[in-house]
C-alpha cells in the first residue's frame, strides 16, 4: 500500500477497546458508501477490538456565510436554503444527541440521497429527515442552528487538515497508547487489508465473531444494499439478492429502488 502514513493521535479520553478508528468521509460521496460496506463487515466480525468515529470532510467555501444564512431559519420564518455543507452540519447536530442518533440520521440521509427522494443539501429536507430518524426533533432544530454544531463540523475540518488527509475516504488506526503514531490508510483497499492492519496493531491473533442471521443483521442496520449483504456473508451478488427476495416475500424486509440503486429496509410491523 502506497497511501499509508504514520500520524500522532490527538489528545482524547482513554478507550476500553485497544484500537480506535478515525474514519474520514464525505457523507454524500459514492466512495463513502463503499467504505461503509467494508466497515459494516469489519464491525460485525471484529467490533470487540475497536471503536470508531466519523470525521466529516466535506469540501466547502464559506462556512461563516452559511452560518449567518441559517441563523434566520431558527425563528420559524419560511426560509429554505441549499448548501453542500448543510448535510454535514445536520449530522453534527444529530451527533450532539449521541453517536447512535448521528448514525441513524446519517443512514436516513444517505437513503434519501441514494434514492433521490429528497434534495439532501436543502435545509427543509434535512429537517424532514430528522423527523424520520427517531431522534429528538426539538433538540435537533435547536442544535442545527447552534454554534456548537458549526464548531463541531469546523473541528472535523481542522482534524482533516492537521492529519493532512487529502483523499476521501481515509481511515486512521490508533492503538490505546497515545504516544504511539497512528497508521493512515488513504483510499479504499480490499477488506482483508483492514483486517491485517487490525491484527498487526493488536499484535496478536484476532478472533472473528460468528456471523449474524439475516434477521439479526437487519435488526442492527435496518437498511442495507445488496452489496452490503454480499460482502458481509462473502457470497455473490446474485446469491445475496436471492436471499433478500425470499425475506421480502416473507414480509420481513421491503425493497426500495430507482434506476441507480437497490436498498433493502427492515419492514416495520404495523
TrEMBL record:
<dbReference type="Pfam" id="PF13743">
    <property type="entry name" value="Thioredoxin_5"/>
</dbReference>
<dbReference type="InterPro" id="IPR036249">
    <property type="entry name" value="Thioredoxin-like_sf"/>
</dbReference>
<comment type="similarity">
    <text>Belongs to the SpxH family.</text>
</comment>
<dbReference type="GO" id="GO:0005737">
    <property type="term" value="C:cytoplasm"/>
</dbReference>
<comment type="function">
    <text>Adapter protein required for efficient degradation of Spx by ClpXP under non-stress conditions. Interaction with Spx stabilizes Spx and exposes the C-terminus of Spx for recognition and proteolysis by ClpXP.</text>
</comment>
<keyword id="KW-0963">Cytoplasm</keyword>
<dbReference type="InterPro" id="IPR046404">
    <property type="entry name" value="Adapter_SpxH"/>
</dbReference>
<comment type="subunit">
    <text>Interacts with Spx.</text>
</comment>
<protein>
    <recommendedName>
        <fullName>ClpXP adapter protein SpxH</fullName>
    </recommendedName>
</protein>
Amino acid at each position: 500500500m502506497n497511501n499509508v502514513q504514520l500520524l500522532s493521535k490527538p489528545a482524547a479520553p482513554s478507550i476500553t477497546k485497544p484500537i480506535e478508528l478515525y474514519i474520514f468521509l464525505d457523507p454524500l460521496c459514492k466512495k463513502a458508501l463503499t467504505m461503509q460496506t467494508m466497515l459494516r463487515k469489519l464491525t460485525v466480525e471484529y467490533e470487540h477490538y475497536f471503536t470508531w468515529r466519523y470525521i466529516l470532510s466535506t469540501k466547502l467555501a464559506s462556512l461563516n456565510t452559511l452560518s449567518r444564512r441559517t441563523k434566520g431559519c431558527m425563528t420559524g420564518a419560511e426560509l429554505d436554503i441549499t448548501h453542500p455543507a448543510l448535510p454535514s452540519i445536520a449530522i453534527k447536530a444529530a451527533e450532539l444527541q449521541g453517536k447512535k442518533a448521528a448514525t441513524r440520521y446519517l443512514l436516513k440521509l444517505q437513503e434519501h440521497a441514494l434514492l433521490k427522494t429528497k434534495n439532501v443539501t436543502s435545509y427543509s429536507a434535512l429537517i424532514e429527515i430528522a423527523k424520520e430518524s427517531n431522534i429528538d426533533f426539538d433538540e435537533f432544530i435547536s442544535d442545527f442552528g447552534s454554534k456548537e454544531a458549526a464548531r463541531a463540523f469546523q473541528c472535523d475540518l481542522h482534524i482533516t487538515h492537521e492529519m493532512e488527509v487529502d483523499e476521501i475516504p481515509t481511515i486512521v488506526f490508533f492503538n490505546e497508547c497515545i504516544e504511539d503514531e497512528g497508521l493512515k490508510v488513504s483510499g479504499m483497499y480490499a477488506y482483508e487489508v483492514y483486517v491485517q492492519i487490525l491484527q498487526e496493531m493488536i499484535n496478536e491473533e484476532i478472533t472473528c465473531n460468528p456471523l449474524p442471521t439475516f434477521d439479526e443483521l437487519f435488526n442492527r442496520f435496518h437498511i442495507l444494499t445488496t452489496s452490503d449483504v454480499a460482502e458481509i456473508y462473502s457470497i455473490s451478488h446474485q446469491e445475496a439478492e436471492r436471499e433478500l427476495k425470499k425475506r421480502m416475500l416473507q414480509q420481513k424486509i421491503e425493497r426500495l429502488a430507482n434506476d441507480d440503486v437497490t436498498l433493502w429496509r427492515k419492514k416495520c410491523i404495523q
